[in-house]
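Re: How this chain folds, sequence and tokenised backbone to follow
How to read it: Take the token row as a discrete description of the fold.
Start of record: The labelled sequence and token lines come straight after this line.
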Amino acid sequence: MSRLLKVYRNRNYVWPDDVRPPARTLELRPITRENVGQVEGLRNASVAATFRRFLDSRRFGVFAVVEGAVVGHAWVTAPADRPQVVNTYAKLTAGESLIHYCYVAPEQRGRGLYAQMLHETTAWAREQGATRVTVDTSADNTASQKGIQRAGFTEVAPTTSVVVGRRLAYIKRGELPT
């Protein structure tokens, strides 16, 4: 049973407009209908079901692969021609894409997989016409925040989102500390 009220406190980052994502140096595979089940070796069947829904909603995902095994994943939304709410908590402007649902297996962390997945999803979003590519993470996930910044993203205003049921009821953009 899902909770009726959820509060998301996130740190938000944007890819700089004047910077092109670097070339890939690790094995990354696009997530497709044919290989989506491979995530079950890393996560579980419910994650695979979520990924199938993402594929149905014009999102692009990648698997990070080490020695033939899936060890990470990341997703990005396709840019829309109008404002949209994504994942019930994130409000995007027209032309904006959101990188989300990222994960790297604990034993693979610190090897640059996260940055490579962020760069690959950013490049795809730009190719699809995204005018702005963002990524967010929980305000208390300092490891992810450091990885996002190391990958070259710049922090923008933090947000607090309140979701009632499956509807975004309220969103507040904060200010960065000076």
Q: What stands out?
A: Residues 113-127 form the longest helix (15 residues). The domain at 5-173 is CATH 3.40.630.30 (Aminopeptidase). The CA atoms of residues 27 and 89 lie 31 Å apart. The helical segments are 45-56, 113-127, 142-150.
